[in-house]
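# step 3/5: fold
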Amino acid sequence: MAKGKLTIDSEKCKGCELCVNFCPKKTLELGKETNTKGYFPVTVVNDECIACGTCAIMCPDSIITVEKE
């Protein structure tokens, strides 16, 4: 199965958690530090990403990029 690399624009993330809730491999979770807008942006917590793109599709602000490795 393909591995994926996620790029997240943390400054634009509002911490809505849609990507977190729909990730089949639980690769994302809310970070512990806020961005300049006061939101807790999502962060990658493991290397289990399968490059399915669900997180990018669910993100209402299109701040996630998925690349296949």
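# step 4/5: annotate
The chain has two helices and four strands.
# step 5/5: archive (pending)
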